[in-house]
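Journal club prep — side note

Before the paper discussion, L.F. wants everyone to see what a predicted structure for a comparable chain looks like in token form. Sequence:
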Amino acid sequence: MDPGETWWEQLVNHEYNECYLYYSFMEQESDPKVKAVWELHLNMELEHLHIACDLMRRHDGREPQEVLAPELPDVLTFEPNKQYLRHLLDTQMDLTTLGAGYVREAHERFEKMQEQIHGGEEPPSDRVMAEHDEMFGREYRVQFEGEHPDPAMREK
């Protein structure tokens, strides 16, 4: 966010961007039932935008048109990103921060934080995955694109 903007400008821009996202979702959706959900949410966000604009007029004494684009840009294009995510899992899954940089090994600060958060127990998300595996006899993820890029994360 631009720290030079007033709170009212930030609110109007935030609501405008939410409208843009829902509009993009709606325009690209092919399933009529799902499209109706996006349209419903777009209409809710349009009302939020109207309220935000009224607040800006009342409290900032300015017109929202001074800060908003005159029309929405072209809709965002939503495309499959499985290969990109698989690449990230393969090349960056073991990265963690250390100061302003990144390291591959789990360092002491990270391990201490994990200990504080989990108190020496397995994280809840890991327990849920283990329970699912016990109940259904397999990994919970459907792997259409092949095995997990990290051998340690593959089904046993």
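L.F.'s comment for the group: Residues 32-60 form the longest helix (29 residues). Keep this in mind when we get to the figures.
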